[in-house]
Amino acid sequence: MLTVEICMGTSCHLMGAQELMDVLEALPDDQRQQIEIKGITCFKKCGKGPNIRINGEMLDNATPDRLREILLTILQ
Amino acid sequence: MPEINEITKIRRKVLTEISQMTFDGRLDTDVENILTSVVTDDGPRYRCCVHKERAVLQDRIKSALSQPMSSTMTEAAIAALDGVISASPIIQVLPVACDQCPLDRFIVTDACRNCLAHSCIASCPKKAISVVANRSFIDKTKCVECGLCKRSCPYGAIIEISRPCERACELGAIAADKARKAVIDYDKCVHCGACKMACPFGAISDRSMIVQVIQQIKAGRSVYALLAPAFIGQFGVQVRPGQVLSSLRKVGFRDALEVSVGADAVAVEEAHEFIERNQTPGAFMTTSCCPAFVGMVEKHLPTMKANISSLVSPMVAAAMDVKKNDPEGIVVFVGPCIAKKSEAERYPGIVDYVLTFEELATMIVGAGVNVTEADAGAFESAGSKDGNIFARAGGVLQAVENVLSQLAPEISVQAERCEGLGNCKKIMQEIEAGKRAANFFEGMACTGGCVGGPGALTDSRVTTRLVENFAGSSPEKSAVTNPKSEEIIKLGLHRPHESHNESKQD
Question: Cβ–Cβ of A11/B16 closer than 8 Å?
Answer without folding.
Answer: yes
